[in-house]
Amino acid sequence: MHKFLEVRGLTKRYGSTVALRNVDFEVSQGEALGLVGENGAGKSTLMKVLGGVVAPDAGTITIADRSHDKLTVQQSMASGIAFVHQELNLFENLTAAANIFIGREATRGGPLRLLDDRTLAARAKPLLAQLGADFSPEIMVEDLSLAQRQMVEIAKALSLEARLVIMDEPTSSLTQSETERLLETIRKLSASGVATIFISHRLGEVKQCCSRVAVLRDGETVAMLKGKDVTPENMIRHMIGRDLKSVYRAPAQAAGEDMLAMTGLRTAYRPLSEVNLALRAGEILGLAGLVGSGRTELARVIAGIEPALGGSMRFAGKELVVAAPSDAIARGIYLVPEDRKGAGLVLDFPIAQNVTMPDLKRYARHLLVDARLESHTANAQKESLDLRCSSVAQAAGELSGGNQQKVALAKWLAMSPKVLVMDEPTRGIDVGAKDEIYRIMRQLADSGVAILMISSDMEEVIGVSDRIAVMHEGRIAGILSRGEFSEERILALAVGRHAQQEAAA
After folding, report:
1. 251-332+417-505 maps to which CATH number?
2. d(CA 392, CA 267)
3. What are phi and psi of 354, to 5 degrees?
4. 276 near 262, Cβ under 8 Å?
5. What is d(CA 155, CA 162) in angstroms, rounded to the nearest whole number?
6. CATH 3.40.50.300 region(s) of the chain?
7. What is the tens place of the pLDDT at every residue in 270-288?
8. Is 329 helix (H, G, I), strand (E, B) or coil?
9. Average pLDDT of the segment spanning 216-224
10. Class of the 3-246 domain?
């Protein structure tokens, strides 16, 4: 198979920091190449070099047998390289076709030069058909699912005659079915001769769609895996320099008494469905289920963000009424939300202010915040969580995803939690950062904290949980003990099938 892109000896320095060091890899026509590495491994810098945004200090980039010392943005695009970023860049108030040809619109004759919607749709239709899209090019983008919007972005790349599509964390916010659709799209691209670089922290998906995987660590290409060597275990071993078994930590002690018990609890999301569930002190209870099963809605009711429509809760054996978040916080029940940037942190504020914000009155002296006490608390959390930052005065928005998650945790750990509800605690962070989050969670559980972990990552749920509760349509469909864990059992419960039904099938 003919090579489309070949990178040799690529090096980039920022002062004394080496972002890329002698990076080598190649991509052939129609190939799906995985690119993995921890945050800070050099993936973003490498993509900026390929996109013409950053010029390397050394090395060569060969595209379709033509070598370059560096690329401009225009050269990158003209060479057939296109990007599909994690944050999609679409106009919701325009049609799919209009987004595909944005800036290159077909217009009608006359002085007003109005858009020729019919021609745009006709040009977009074969591009969407090539991807197996099941929607009309005339539909408004605001009416499309996230997976369908990604198809629009990919169609836009194809309209530019892209020969290499680089996808950065494309499945981080997709459901399982949407992810399968995207992976099928990648297979269709390969069949048509379009190459793909697939960047993801979801290593199971990398294995599923990529025949070869380049692994970066500390700015270097440390491995090029292919064939049977493309496994999550091998990828992690090269990414972080140790074995997969060290990432997940088995429970060190038996769980204690029920800390938070829910009986007949009903949420506005599924008013007729009742949740019966008990969370024990000292355990990590995984909460699995398909998107739309009601997991996040249950978390919001526990935290007092949304009201319960019925049922009851007990905390440490006593009746618990949560009418507002302050009621939950007063009992030591804290929520680390799924959207850490939008709901968990104030990105423009320093780390110290984010850490102390939920308990600000503790730091007030005559209506003024005691900056020294605030800094002392934040620095204690920085050391405890191995938070990597220049200082606690650094803005939270400048941190990596894993370190932002640590700050979102730190503000509650400073208040001695009794129950910690963690919604997708490792979404969008690399394997090394996941390892650290798991370590913190296990330490908290060992100290007696009850943790409810909501996760869509099957490997994570099985590897981290002491027990797994599975939700289906707003109810707890079943609870599995550690010896019963398997993907098949979890999925069977998630789709409303009981174990005996699965056995009979």
Report:
1. 3.40.50.300
2. 38
3. -65, -40
4. yes
5. 10
6. 3-246, 251-332+417-505
7. 888 899 999 999 999 999 9
8. helix
9. 91
10. alpha beta
